[in-house]
Amino acid sequence: MKKIGILILLSHALFLSACLNGEQGVPLSDDIKEISISESEGFSGINADFFLVMRETSKVEEIMKNAEEVETDVAENGAEENRYDFVIKYESEGARLLHLFLGDKGEKSLFTFTGYDQEGYETTPEETAALRRLLE
User: Fold this and answer.
1) What is the distance between the alpha carbons of residues 65 and 128, in angstroms, rounded to a whole number?
2) Which of 105, 121, 117, 95 is nearest to 40 (CA)?
3) Across-strand partners of 97?
4) Is the dihedral of CA 98, 99, 104, 106 positive or negative?
5) Given pLDDT bands bounded at 50, 70 and 90, which one contains residue 76?
6) pTM for the complete prediction?
7) Which of 12, 14, 58, 61 has the fewest CB atoms within 10 Å around its CB?
8) Which DSSP symbol is given to 48?
9) Confidence of residue 113 (pLDDT cuts 50, 70, 90)
10) Once rounded to an integer, what is the mean pLDDT over residues 104-126?
11) Mean of all residue pLDDT scores within the chain
């Protein structure tokens, strides 16, 4: 329980620092060590049962950096399926916790910071297709 509290606190701090960043795309540092991906179990935390751990992250980084910031209400839109958790670990020992709401074929996808699902970063349908290939 203590670990979950620490993860939530860390994600809040990371989100606040991301809000101050004026760049387009999901705020990422240049020293990404790995990206771990799991099927999401809900809005409030991260599922630590990862099915994919990537050390070559350039494809995912490019998609995230091109995503457009949007306001959204994920809970209202009923995004119950195709949810994934991303843990982005940095060489500097920091991490970012994200949810991915994967769009269907021809649709956009949405990245949000864990615990902050009112704002997110939307991908293009083409980037959704690339994410689908990666996750299948």
Assistant:
1) 14
2) 117
3) 87
4) negative
5) low
6) 0.72
7) 58
8) -
9) confident
10) 86
11) 77
Quick one: which H or E segment has residue 32?
Answer: strand 32-39
Which residues neighbour 9 within 8 Å (Cβ) at sequence distance 6 or greater? none
Burial of 10 (0-12, 13-18, 19+ CB in 10 A): middle
> Considering its fold, how many domains does the chain have in total?
1
Q: Let me know: does 121 contact 108? Beta carbons within 8 Å.
A: no
Domain that holds residue 8: 2-135
Angle (deg, nearest 10), helices 125-135 and 58-66 = 150
- CATH assignment of the domain containing 45: 2.60.40.4400
The answer to whether residues 64 and 25 touch, using CB atoms and an 8 Å cutoff, is: yes
Q: If pLDDT is split at 50, 70 and 90, which confidence band does 66 have?
A: confident
3-state helix/strand/coil string of 77-130: HCCCCCEEEEEEEECCCCEEEEEEECCCCCCCCEEEECCEEEEEEECCHHHHHH
HSE, CB side, 13 Å, CA atoms: give it for residue 40. Answer: 24
